[in-house]
Input
Amino acid sequence: MKTSINFYQFKNWFKENRPNNFSDAGLLALFNYIEEYEENWGKEIEFDPIALCVEYQEYDNLEEFWGDYDRLKYSDLETLRDFTEVIEIEDSDGFIILSF
Output
């Protein structure tokens, strides 16, 4: 049994329960990424917000990312894409990665 949710419900869940995990722009980018995945693969994803909080990490920019990961190994977003999924956040330097 699955229930479909829209962006408003998606965003509200995070704002009420995990307000520090993703920015508003990050939530929109993540929601759009998941919807696009579902459309491309013809597979519905179950809404598991705790798993999303564990599996995905948002960064404001590469400088913040390099605080957690090796700057020389992951010098730019293109290189980072060789190691994990990268979801760019529109109109910003921010991005979300699938944690690895």
